[in-house]
Specification:
Elements: H1 2-14, E1 32-40, E2 43-51, E3 53-56, E4 62-65, E5 71-80, E6 86-94, E7 108-115, E8 129-132, E9 139-143, E10 147-157, E11 166-167, E12 169-177, E13 180-186, E14 190-193, E15 203-204, E16 206-211, E17 217-224, E18 232-236, E19 239-245, E20 251-256, E21 269-277, E22 286-296, E23 302-305
Parallel strand pairs: 4-14, 15-22
Antiparallel strand pairs: 1-2, 3-5, 5-10, 6-9, 6-12, 7-8, 7-10, 11-14, 12-13, 16-17, 17-20, 18-19, 18-21, 21-22, 22-23
Length: 307
């Protein structure tokens, strides 16, 4: 019995004393700190473990979908300013305040995958995780200390998406190590549907032929325009010809002479004539369309008439 006691005492004298003290330091930033103090054979070491996460993104905060099937890619980067690796969970919720739509989130398909760079220019890999903004894919992993991890989110608006609607995807990361956690978020992403309106159907031009009395003729095309100050131009073979037509008269017109349809522009025969708005920097879509007939008279001179 005395031998066993002696052995226990010997072990007691040679044992390693290890004291673990954990303290949480409140900094007001949510950063988690852990303090380990270890005493081994009279040598003392103190190690601070910090968990500090941030979210970064250089992607546009506001984007518009102008057509069904259009895709937008958003890069979200997790930055760890901590001193230990952190396990993270990156999730998405949609905002519900302001002008956001209750229907649009479920009609935008989303695919997410980790990227080697923050540009997210690569194609969607086959193992990307999917969902919608209403039920977005959750990204998980581990970010090393003082390093970054980027996730790409490719969102595609579906054919059932409502027009003139807004979705506000909000990204939030929660991560931790050794029992301490930190979180960060980005809440100012907005995606809008602004589908382009289809071009209006062009209306028919009226046409009248005028005989000049010398064996030639010209045509006059007319159209009923709104009572506004818009400006209209005549186009032949995609090229603008003639003068700008404007004014408050409900019926507007433009003559089409052989000077407007030279042989260098169109050959003899039936020629399409279009009227388009020229009020802006670029001509508008075809608003009115019709046809004239171009050909030589008995003397071989070019003339214009209505079909």
């Amino acid at each position: 019995m005395s031998g066993r006691v002696a052995r226990r005492r010997a072990l007691g004298r040679g044992a390693v004393l290890v004291a673990l003290v954990v303290a949480l330091v409140g900094t007001g930033t949510g950063t988690g700190w852990a303090l380990w103090t270890a005493t081994v054979d009279a040598a003392s070491q103190t190690t601070f473990a910090k968990v500090d996460l941030e979210l970064e993104s250089s992607s546009p905060r506001a984007v518009d979908y102008t057509a069904v099937g259009q895709s937008v890619t958003t890069a979200v980067t997790i930055y760890s300013g901590g001193t230990v690796p952190a396990d993270y969970r990156l999730s998405v919720v949609v905002g519900t305040t302001g002008a956001v739509s209750a229907d649009l989130p479920a009609r935008v398909d989303v695919q997410a995958w980790p990227a080697t760079t923050a540009s997210c220019t690569s194609a969607v890999p086959p193992d990307a995780i999917g969902g919608t903004w209403a039920s977005a894919p959750v990204a998980t992993g581990t970010v090393a200390a003082s390093s970054r991890v980027t996730w790409c989110y490719r969102s595609t608006v579906s054919s059932s998406a409502p027009d003139k609607a807004t979705v506000n995807p909000r990204f939030e990361v929660v991560g931790g190590s050794h029992g301490w956690t930190d979180r960060a978020s980005i809440q100012d992403f907005y995606q809008n549907t602004r589908f382009a309106s289809p071009a209006p159907t062009a209306r028919a031009l009226s046409c009248g032929t005028t005989d000049t009395g010398d064996g030639t003729s010209f045509a006059t095309v007319s159209w009923d325009a709104p009572l506004d100050s818009d400006q209209w131009g005549l186009f032949v073979a995609g090229q603008r010809v003639g003068n700008t037509v404007s004014g408050q008269a409900p019926t507007k017109e433009h003559v089409v002479t052989r000077d407007h349809v030279p042989a260098s522009l169109v050959p003899d025969g039936r020629v399409t004539v279009d009227v388009r708005s020229v009020a802006g920097a670029e001509p508008g879509p075809v608003a009115w369309t019709g046809a004239v007939v171009v050909g030589p008279n008995a003397q071989g001179q070019r003339q214009v008439s209505c079909p």
